[in-house]
Specification:
Blueprint (H helix, E strand, L loop, with lengths): L2 H8 L14 E4 L2 E4 L18 E3 L2 E3 L1 H8 L15 E3 L2 E3 L19 E3 L2 E3 L5
Antiparallel strand pairs: 1-2, 3-4, 5-6, 7-8
């Protein structure tokens, strides 16, 4: 076989384009990829074989994954990517779980509620 014929018959095929891979192979999600076809399903940036998150069989960079799929904070609406406070049937960033009157952090296990928002012991 000539080199192109050998590659066509024996090289892994890229999941992104279906063509033989004759250079660097990325193995991810159970299939092979050309490096330039293994891209984030959100921003389309090359993932380069580094860390990624998977959703519905598609790879995502950490920023796009958080933006599209992470739980949202009830206080600010931004994605929660670290530990969260679960209260009032919602998730909150620690910095966002504050008294609705004085805006100080609500740190006690017991707190009051007004309009489905936390109140610290002093403001209750």
């Amino acid at each position: 076989h000539c080199v192109p014929c050998f590659a066509a018959h024996h090289s892994p095929r890229c999941h992104g384009c279906g063509e033989p891979i004759t250079d660097r192979v990325i193995q991810a999600l159970g299939v092979s990829w050309h490096a330039h076809h293994f891209v984030c399903g959100g921003c389309r940036k090359e993932l380069g074989g580094g860390g990624f998150m998977e959703q519905a069989g598609r790879p995502y960079c950490s920023a796009c994954y958080a933006d599209k799929f992470a739980a949202r904070c009830k206080g600010c609406g931004s994605p929660i990517t670290d530990k969260a406070i679960i209260a009032l049937d919602a998730k909150w960033h620690r910095d966002c779980f504050t008294c609705m009157k004085c805006r100080n952090p609500v740190t006690d296990a017991t707190f009051s509620v007004m309009d489905n928002k936390p109140l610290c012991g002093k403001c209750a």
